[in-house]
Structure formats: C-alpha cells, structure tokens
Amino acid sequence: MTPMTPFKPHPLCSLRIWVLLPLLALNPTVMVFSTPAHQLGAQEILIENGFAAKVDGKVITLAELNRAVEMRIAMARGQVPDEVIERDKFKFRPLVLIDLIERQLLLRKATRDGIILPPGSVENHLQRTVDRLSAAEGTRYSVDDYLVLWEQQFGESEVELRSRLKDQLRIEALKKIHIQSTSSISPKKLREYYRNHSEEFAEDGRISFRQILVAENDPDYKKIVEEIESGLEKKDDFVELVKKWSMGPRQESGGLYEMSESQLDARFPPVPEVVRSLKAGEISSWFLCRGYGHKIFLVKRMAGGALDFTKAQDQIRVLITQKLENEKRLEFQKSLWKNSTIEVFIPGVELPQQ
C-alpha cells in the first residue's frame, strides 16, 4: 500500500460534529477523484439495487449516504454560503462515502477485537452532553429535550442517534487500544518543548456576541426576518432589534452572551462554528438551530494571555502524545484497508491503493 498522508478537506467536510464522537476515529486518507471535480455535479449517481458501496459484503445504501451528506450540509448552514453548498455538494458526496466505508472497517475491527460497551455507556454520554449544553446555554435541558432538538435540527431520530453513538463509542474504545500512547514524557522533554514553542500556549480566550432568535414555526416568521433585515440595512442598533424582535431568553439584555472559547464549544451546532467564522462587528447570515432562525453579531473576541510553563504542562503533554499517536494512527489505518473487499457504485471515488 502506498503511504497515506492527511489531506486538506473540503470546507464542508471539515465541519466539526460536536455532540457525536468524530465520524472517523482516524484521520481521513488521501483521495484522488477518478472524475474531474468540475464534472461531478453533472453526473447521475449510478444506482445498483440502491447501494452506494459494499464493505466485505456489508451494504452502505444510497439512503445512508444521502443522510450523512445532508447532516454535514446542515452543520454547514450559516457558516458556508448557500450558493457554495449547492455548487459543491456533489463533490462532497465521494468524501462522505470514504468516511462511511472507513467507519465500517473500524466497526468490523471492533467486532473482531470483541469490543463491547459497558451498560449505560450511550445514556451516560448523552447526559454529559446535555449537562455541557445546559451550562453553555443557561437553560436546563433533559436528555429527552435534547433528542427532540437533535431530530428537529438534523432529521436523525432517537433510535438512529443512539445507534450511531453506540458505534462511535465502540470506535473510540478501539482507538484507545490500538492508537493511544502509553509512553511517559519526561519533565526535561516538556521543558524543551515549551522553550521552543512558548508562543503556542495561551489561556482560554473569551468571546462576546449577541443573537436574535425567531421561532421557525411562527406564522409571521418571514415577515419578522424581513423587518430585522430592513432595520439592519438602515443601520438600526442590533441591541434594539433584539429587544424588539427576538424570541430568545435574553431578549431584555439585548441577547448578550459572554463566555470562554471552551464554553462556546458546548453550544448546539452550528452556533460555535458560526461565531468563530465572524470578525468583531460582523453579523452572520440567518441559520436554523433548535427550531429558531438565528442571527448573530460578534461583539468582541479577546485572546487569552500567555501561559507560563507550570500551567502549560498539561497542554504540552497532550501535544507530544498526539504526535506519537499520529504515527501509530497511520499504521493502524493502513492495516484496516488490507485484505478488504470494497465495491463502490457511485462515480468520482477512488479507494486508497494497497
């Protein structure tokens, strides 16, 4: 097999799936399109019994592929322009299919290794997720609330989400066995790394933003959005627009949220991605999240101060460990694709060479 190296993913493909563990437990492989990218949008998907691919006889259906693509696109709304999404979504499909194929290879390996989750693993994961979301949003959510919001946002039912989480937790357990580094890192090595890279370490930065929320199911939704857009065109104060039109819990305070970068990560997607795509003073496009149309104004972003060695040690240890694990990751990834029978039924995909 030829060496595999990480590739720079398409903007849609690089989107973070916040709640779920990453779709891949490993870095994606280099992919070469067998069809020029500009021609992909003009091709029809070849349908063979509704299959997108087979992995050692296990089918990945076109319906599964389409759902995975739509979920990635839903994550992109608000941070990638709609015209870019529409233009590039056919290019994106082969990338998602490679992800799904590798996911099947990982699950097959997990089964062969006898990986079984402890009872309650999925429920515990959901509860931790809901606790982080509640703290970040300032609203107490239950797991049931979260499941309803998730299906509303991404069209994935509770049964589908729980099944996917189970698979991802098994993949994470597999990753720990085959990739996680157990090497100890000496204090000398920690100090050397800090001395050579001290500019990389900073305290958690802080972000301040305001948001307008308009319920998607409000009969006057379109009219309210038009009124807000008209106000913005006339340079009306964003705070006053929030107080007049927003249906969110912080309407009276002008929709203000102030939090650390790590707290922002706990917000429901795609809010973190949208906030990070803005510069101070910029306003986002409208995007849907949790049944509300969102409009976000970034007030300011404050970088964290420099970290001294004592506080930076944990971060340094993580970075060095990641480098060690990346070497093991690539070797493990190569082994996954060996001795596998993979058939692909859509155009524009070339599998990694063995």
Task: Write the topology of this structure.
Blueprint: E1 51-55, E2 58-61, H1 62-76, H2 82-112, H3 121-137, H4 143-154, H5 158-178, H6 187-197, E3 206-215, H7 221-233, H8 238-245, E4 256-260, H9 261-264, H10 271-277, E5 287-289, E6 292-302, H11 309-337, E7 342-344
Antiparallel strand pairs: 1-2, 1-7, 3-4, 3-6, 5-6
Protein architecture, described:
With 354 residues, the protein is α+β, with helices and mostly antiparallel strands. 47% of the residues lie in helices and 12% in strands. It contains eleven helices and seven strands. The strands form two sheets. A four-stranded antiparallel β-sheet has the order 4-3-6-5. It has a three-stranded antiparallel β-sheet with strand order 2-1-7. The longest helix has 31 residues, at 82-112. The protein starts with 50 loop residues before the first strand and ends in a 10-residue tail after the last strand.
